[in-house]
Amino acid sequence: MDLKVVSFVLLVVQNTLLGIVTKYSRGTKYNATSAVMLIECSKFVLCMLIVAYTKGGIQACWTSVQREVFGDREGFKKMIFLALLYAGQNTVALLSYDYVDVATYNVVYQLKIVTTAFFMVLLLKRSFNIVQWIAMVALMVGVAICSTARPSSKDKASSSLVGIFMVLGLAINSGIAAAYLEMVLKTHKPHQTFPNPIDPLWKTNIQLAVISVAATGLGVAHAAYTTKDFSFFEGYNHFTYGVIALQACGGLIIAAVVRYSDNVVKNFGTALSLVLSSLLANYLFHTTSPPMFYVGGFLVVASVFVYGDKRFHLQASPETIVKPSKEHDDLESGLGSKNDEGHSIQDIKIAPEATETLLSQRTKE
Fold first, then answer.
1. Average pLDDT over residues 318-346
2. The predicted structure's pLDDT at residue 110
3. How far are the Cα atoms of 96, 124, 155, 351, 358 from residue 364, in angstroms, in the given order?
4. Please, which residues bridge with residue 266 across strands?
5. Across the chain, what does the average pLDDT equal?
6. 316 vs 344, residue with greater confidence
7. What is the pLDDT of residues 125-163, one digit of tens each?
8. Rg of the chain taking only CA atoms, in angstroms
9. How far apart are CA 43 and CA 210, in angstroms?
10. In Å, how far are 133, 206, 296 from 180, measured between CA atoms?
11. Rounded distance between C-alpha atoms, residue 271 and residue 143, angstroms
C-alpha cells in the first residue's frame, strides 16, 4: 500500500473530524494550557507504543530510546531550534489577535502556503513547475475565500499595519518551521548507527515531544502559581478529550505526510479538510454557507487535482529541467522512497497546530 496516499487520506480525515469535534467542545471554555500539555504527552506515549511494538517489547523499546533518541545530542539540538520556532509562532499568534481582525488574519496567514514552498526550494533544493506554483496560489486564494466567507464571530477589531506585519512574520516562520522539520526528517543522520534502528519518523517526534512536554509543563506550572483556584481539567468535557486525541494523532500524521511526501502536500490536505469539515458542519448544525464559500471550495478542490495530476503538468525541455542535488538523490534512495513532483499539506506544526486550534477559540466564539 502506498504510504503517501494512506498518510494523505488520514490527514484529511483527521483534520475534518477535528473541525467538527472542536465545534462540539466549545460548549465550555477549558484550560488551553493544560490541553496543549496533554496533547504533547499523548504524542510521546503514542510514539513510545509504536516503537515498543516494532521492537517487540517495552524493555527493548526503552533500551533503543535511551541509546538512539536521548543519545543523539545533535538531533536534540535541531529539535530545540524547531521548538523555539514553534514557541515564537504560538506567542506571536496570540499577540497578533490584539492587532488584526480574524478575517485579515485568515487571509494574510495563507501566505504560509507559498512561503513553505519557497523554503523547501531554499533548504531542500526542491523544484516546482509553473503549473504547481499556479495550483499553490489558487489553493491560497481558495482557502482565504473559504475562511472569510463564513460568518465569523463578534470580532470587531480593526487591523493595523503592525498586526499585518506580525501575521506576515507568522506566515514566514511557519514556512521555515515546516521546511526545517522536513529537512531534519529526511537528512539527519546520527554519528553512530545501530542495527534495526528506530524509524526517523518516531525518533524525531519523541525528541520533539520531550522538549514540548517540558516547555508546556513550565507553562502549566506558571499558570498554577499565578492563577487563583487553578484547575488542570477546568472546563473539560468528552469532546475536549476528543480534541486532544485528534490533535495528538494529527501531529504524527502530519509528520508522516512530510516524511513520505512533503509540506506542500500537507498544505493541500489540510485545505481540503477545511472544505469538507465546513460542509459536514452545515449538515450537522443545520447551517448554510454563502455562495462565495463554494467558490473558494471549488478553487481548493481544483488546485488539489491540478497539483497532483501529472497530466496537467507542463513538460519542460531537457535544457530547462532543474535536477535535484546529488545529496538529495542520495537522501531519497537512502529512505527507500522517492518524492514525485507532489508536495505535503496544517501549519507542521506539530506543536503550533495543537496550540493554534485552542487559542483561536477566543476570537471565533
1. 42
2. 83
3. 14, 36, 8, 20, 10
4. 344
5. 81
6. 316
7. 989 989 999 999 999 999 888 887 765 555 545 567 888
8. 20
9. 9
10. 20, 17, 29
11. 6
pLDDT in tens, 297-306: 999 999 988 8
**Cα separation of 119 and 209, whole Å?**
24
Amino acid, res. 192: Q
Q: Which of 33, 25, 69, 26 is nearest to 51 (CA)?
A: 69
* pLDDT digits 0-9 by tens, 94-129: 677 678 776 677 778 888 889 999 999 999 998 998
Q: Find out whether 343 and 265 touch, Cβ atoms under 8 Å.
A: yes
- Rounded Cα distance, 308 and 312, in Å: 9
**How do residues 186-210 score in pLDDT, each as one tens digit?**
888 887 788 888 988 899 999 999 9
343 pLDDT more than 70: no
CA distance 343 to 91: 28
Stretch 7-20: mean pLDDT: 91
Query: Residues 103, 109: contact at Cβ < 8 Å?
Result: no
Query: What are the structural domain ranges in the chain?
Result: 3-208+238-364
* CA–CA gap between residue 349 and residue 123 (Å, rounded): 17
